[in-house]
């Protein structure tokens, strides 16, 4: 299969999973994760109609954006763990940051452009494991983090939550905890309805659990040169 065929096949599987869960496929945003692939892949995807792409490393994101001409309507999502000192570069390159997991990172993203005309969309990353190295904050940290951003970071807009399913557990169980964390954030920011969850191997479970934004890499792009 070539890229267009893999994209179409994956979109058909997403639509099937949505219908099986009683959900409208048109309400889902499919983000194509292009990390470790050359910038030309983004151009090819854009020509096929893709308007949302995801990168997980700031340097790669910045370099790809710099090397490409403006692509009409393309939205760059930053989905990786973010160092506070990289906040300015992330904000300059991304329209959505999925991985806000602490006050200091939110503060740094806000300080990078405090008077921005268009706020930066942010998702609060939930760590669904006990391993702090996996990124994200504990589910019970979500409401306080949302409160901090709403009160202190006027140039950020909290849109919802994001998580990666643990390897050690059935994804459906983990995504149920994510849905509960999403409820907690909505208790603070009522219109923060986005749930970013679901990768190549678990998007059907994520859709069943209420995901609104899917982050799909290898099922569309093929294998990456470097695993990650
Ligand atoms: C790489 C990555 C994905 C995509 O993973 P695939 O298994 O290739 O679909 C999704 N989310 C995050 C945070 C990633 O780093």
CATH architecture tag: Alpha-Beta Barrel
Radius of gyration: 17 Å
Residue fraction in strands: 15-25%
Residue windows where pLDDT falls under 50 for at least 5 positions = none
> How many β-strand runs?
8
- What share of residues is helical? 40-55%
State the major sheet: 8 strands, parallel
The count of domains is 1
Distance between the termini: 23 Å
Instruction: Tell me the CATH superfamily.
Output: Alanine racemase
Count of helical stretches: 9
String of helices and strands? HEHEHEHEHEHEHEHEH
**CATH top level?**
Alpha Beta
Give, in spatial order, the strands making up the sheet with the most strands: 7-6-5-4-3-2-1-8
Going by helix content, strand content and strand pairing, the class is alpha/beta
């Amino acid at each position: 299969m070539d890229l267009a065929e893999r994209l179409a096949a994956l979109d058909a599987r997403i639509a099937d999973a949505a219908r099986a869960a009683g959900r409208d496929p048109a309400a889902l945003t499919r983000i194509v994760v292009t990390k470790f692939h050359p910038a030309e892949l983004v151009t090819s995807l854009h020509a096929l109609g893709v308007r949302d792409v995801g990168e997980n490393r700031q340097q790669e994101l910045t370099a790809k954006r710099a090397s490409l001409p403006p692509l009409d309507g393309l939205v760059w999502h930053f989905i990786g763990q973010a160092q506070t000192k990289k906040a300015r570069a992330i904000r300059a390159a991304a329209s959505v940051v999925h991985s806000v997991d602490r006050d200091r990172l939110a503060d740094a993203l806000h300080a990078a452009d405090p008077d921005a005309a268009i706020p930066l969309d942010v998702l609060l990353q939930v760590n669904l494991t006990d391993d702090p190295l996996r990124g994200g904050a504990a589910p019970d940290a979500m409401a306080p983090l949302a409160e901090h951003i709403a009160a202190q970071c006027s140039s950020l807009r909290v849109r919802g939550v994001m998580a990666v399913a643990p390897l050690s557990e059935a994804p459906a169980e983990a995504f149920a905890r994510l849905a509960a964390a999403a409820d907690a954030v909505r208790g603070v920011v009522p219109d923060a309805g986005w749930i970013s969850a679901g990768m190549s191997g678990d998007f059907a479970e994520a859709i069943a659990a209420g995901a609104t934004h899917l982050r799909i890499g290898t099922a569309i792009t093929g294998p990456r040169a470097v695993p990650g």
